[in-house]
Design a protein that fits this description.
- The chain folds into three domains: about 150 residues, ATPase, nucleotide binding domain (Nucleotidyltransferase, domain 5, 2-Layer Sandwich); about 80 residues, Dna Ligase, domain 1, CATH 3.30.1490; about 160 residues, Nucleotidyltransferase, domain 5.
- The protein is globular, with a radius of gyration of 22 Å.
- The protein is built from eleven helices and 19 strands.
- α9 links the parallel β17 and β18.
- It is about 35% helix and about 30% strand.
Length: about 425
């Protein structure tokens, strides 16, 4: 039985949680969420699948809960991907075959992402996205859409995002072991950008910082183009673990304390305020100054801000005072974090939540759900449902050419960005 083509499913497989969303296309530019489920994640470390069997069990629970609530059987889904194994490259390539018939055609431009991805293929790496940013005709750079133009020499600059094949295969195996096919893999911070950014922000200089459980992912846009991607191996886990290690408490107790009492500015906390904390080996909870907990949080937050600033410097964003910084992901909810970013990076900081393009329940209008909603929006913007692809029976894709299943999506990404810039 074929899945209704108006139904879109997104699965956000994170370090701390697995979130599944089922939605129906709502007109030309929106989606309506029918159901969602969130379950604790397992088998992931710093965004990477470390234990396929454990990850599969968590994904299966989330899928089944969502199916029951929506009354829909999930046959395929778009899946977010992140992790410390993800890397990027901006590269220029000459397209000597383009324009040979007199003018550059749409069909030729459709070939660009797959051609560039194939040319840049590396052993042990899998292309996730290859998005053309800008073209050069006869040495003249800065052309966004060369369709219909004449050229003796066409070049393209492409933002290529890749992941380690071993980790990509593990993620595919974990999802497909549940009986759900993977329509596409979507870089999670790019998906979050779909959910939280406005069109005006895309056209300016904006950095989306998605602070998840295991990693902090950064995507930078300039002039409507994504041109920089980075992964920082620090996330909400490290904030919780600092409390856990310092007070010899359980991770669950430390997580509860972080959510209920942590703050990135300890000086806003009354010095006499105390909280109760369970300690290993003790039958009774102990009293801990809340300000001490917040001091731990501040030190970790300062480290994270320093690492974010370093990544933005790598992106050559220029004067930071004019950069818009959008914080999203579950840890973006930490009180005082946005203010710390204002003090250390730029005074243009806001918390990103899913915007009005998707009809979603109130509980999804939170930074922690930006990725899941963004995956839905990314999938909706594809020109048509993605064709099925073959697998080798072990969860890994059988490559049709050097870039495998992802080549089916690359040509659509180019059209998507050009449409938004027009």
């Amino acid at each position: 039985m074929m899945q209704d083509t108006k139904i879109i499913t997104a699965i956000d497989v994170g370090t701390s949680k697995v979130c599944t969303l089922i939605a129906r296309r709502n007109g030309a530019n929106g989606v309506k969420v029918l159901a969602h489920s969130v379950v604790p994640s397992d088998g992931l470390k710093k965004g990477n699948v470390a234990d396929v069997a454990s990850a599969e069990k968590a994904i299966r629970r989330s899928i089944r809960q969502c199916e029951i609530r929506a009354g829909v059987k999930i046959q395929s889904a778009h899946v977010g991907i992140a992790g410390s194994h993800v890397s990027f490259e901006n590269r220029w390539d000459e397209l000597g075959w383009a324009g040979k018939e007199g003018v550059i055609t749409a069909e030729e431009l459709d070939r660009v992402p797959t051609t560039v991805a194939a040319a840049g293929a590396e052993s042990g790496r899998q292309v996730i996205h290859a998005i053309p940013m800008v073209y050069a005709l006869d040495g003249q750079r800065g052309i966004r859409n060369p369709k219909g133009m004449h050229s003796r020499q066409l070049e393209v600059q492409t933002h290529i995002v890749t992941g380690a094949t071993s980790f990509v295969d593990k993620l595919l195996a974990a999802v497909e072991s549940t009986g759900v096919k993977v329509d596409s893999l979507v870089l999670e911070p790019l998906a979050s950008s779909e959910a939280v950014l406005t069109r005006d922000e895309r056209l300016q200089r904006v950095a989306v910082v998605d602070i998840g459980g295991g990693t902090t992912d950064v995507v930078v846009f300039k002039g409507g183009r994504m041109f920089f991607t980075a992964v920082i191996p620090v996330g909400g886990y490290q904030f919780t673990n600092d409390i856990c290690q310092t007070y010899d408490t359980t991770y669950a107790a430390a997580e509860e304390v972080k959510i209920e009492h942590a703050h990135a500015d300890p000086f806003l906390i009354h010095p006499q305020e105390e909280i109760s904390l369970a300690v290993s080996g003790m039958s009774q909870e102990i009293k801990v100054p809340r300000r001490d907990i917040c001091q731990l949080t501040r030190e970790r937050a300062q480290e994270l801000m320093r690492l974010i600033k370093l990544k933005l410097q790598e992106a050559n964003m220029g004067e930071f005072s004019t950069v818009q910084l959008v914080l999203t992901g579950g840890t973006a909810n930490l009180p005082g974090l946005a203010q710390l970013a204002t003090q250390t990076i730029t005074n243009r900081v806001r918390i990103g939540v899913p915007n009005g393009r998707a009809k979603i329940p109130e509980e999804l209008k939170a930074p922690s759900h930006s990725t899941g909603v963004g995956i839905l929006l990314w999938a909706m913007n594809q020109s048509k449902p993605v064709a099925e692809y073959a697998t080798n029976g072990k969860g890994a894709d059988v490559q049709t050419g050097p870039v495998g299943i992802f080549s089916r999506l690359l040509e659509r990404a180019r059209n998507l960005w050009l449409t938004r810039l027009s």
